[in-house]
Design a protein that fits this description.
Layout: E1 5-7, E2 10-12, E3 16-18, H1 27-30, E4 40-42, E5 59-62, E6 65-68, H2 77-88, E7 94-99, H3 104-115, E8 121-125, H4 142-155, E9 160-163, H5 171-180, E10 185-188, E11 192-195, E12 197-198, E13 203-204, E14 210-214, H6 219-230, E15 237-240, H7 246-254, E16 259-262, H8 265-268, H9 272-286
Parallel strand pairs: 3-4, 3-16, 4-7, 7-8, 8-9, 9-10, 10-15, 15-16
Antiparallel strand pairs: 1-2, 5-6, 6-14, 11-14, 12-13
Length: 299
Amino acid sequence: MTLSTTIHGITFKNPIIAASGTFGFGEEYNELYDVSCLGGISSKGLTLHPKDGNEGIRVYETPAGMMNSVGLQNPGIEAFIRDGIANMRKFDTVLIANMGGHSMDDYVTGATMLSEADIDMLELNISCPNVKSGGMAFGIKAEVAREVVSAVRKVCKKPLIVKLSPNAENIVEMALACEEAGADALSLVNTFQAMAIDIHRRKPIFNNVYAGLSGAAIRPIALRMVHSVCKQVHVPVIGIGGIYTAEDILAFMMAGATAVQIGTVNFNNPLAGKELVDNLVKLCMQEGIQDINEIIGII
């Protein structure tokens, strides 16, 4: 049986990647199971300078999911290159560095630094607010996204994944713009903008009022968006959004995804990564799937 899949020349032993922001740099989960069993790990979201993240409540459980407003807490790109990469390289899996930024200069400088580092792929998070343009995320308007991806592409020597926000004005138009600007692959979807209110305190749960919704609640919408994008682009797509079971993985791959990322499920069940790898093998055997690549995009 073949579970390995390839994205722009990078081979993953299986299509299961730990999603950025849900797995740290892999060390804590490796105390529970050997994370080398995963196809890949996308690092905690990195920014040019260290960030402390948001104050107040950061994670809030919702029916069939969770909301988060962590605020990209991270040690910064320089510290990651100095210390984090060596620790992640202890794991026999594809190393993806996830990077965000709040200005064009942030993205270009960060991508230049990471391109010289020992990473396998760079995942560009364009859901970050552009502080120089009133706070609207780079990933809302296709033309803005095209500009930042084009600028990063000029300096990026690594395979470039662009992570798309479901809050984009038009997700397919956004995907096509990023592909045309030089993305080697796309990952989608990031979290949906959402809100929760504490009726007793008569205040929003989160200090920033709005937060990102993830988990099983978004799965059907994420699956639709992945399917829509896969029908239009010619680069590999990594499916994200409420993936909890091996059946979910096959569904996203049948919709066109070459691989998937698992996120919120890691909070529900810290052993989810290993269990999903094992369950995917069993499910493929039950379904008579000899090569998982055969099912990509059959829907």
